[in-house]
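Side project, low priority. Logging it here so it doesn't get lost.
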Amino acid sequence: MPEFPPCPKCNSEYVYPTDELLICPDCFYEWNPNDMDDQTENTKVLDANGNELKTGDSVIVIKDLPVKGFPKPVKMGTKVKNIRLTDGDHNIDCKIDGFGSMALKSEFVKKA
């Protein structure tokens, strides 16, 4: 079974192909995966130290980060495994133990 990249709009993993396009059944976004390869090469995400981050890397939080709806912040030194890079202001999607899924800014992490 071939592996397809997640949807660039909603990050759904349930993507399916039709002809040359990939389609997301969750948000109905259609894109050509060959065009996306060119776009992802141009965007670089850097951590607080200037190291380039890639999807699947592990990072460490460099300062306490308050989280809306939680009484305690994500503590400095928390290791986050298997990050996923996205577009936008908060350019890292991840899962943190005790908090669940969240988005982080790359300027508040360093590569592990």
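Brief comment: The helical segments are 33-42.
Revisit when time allows.
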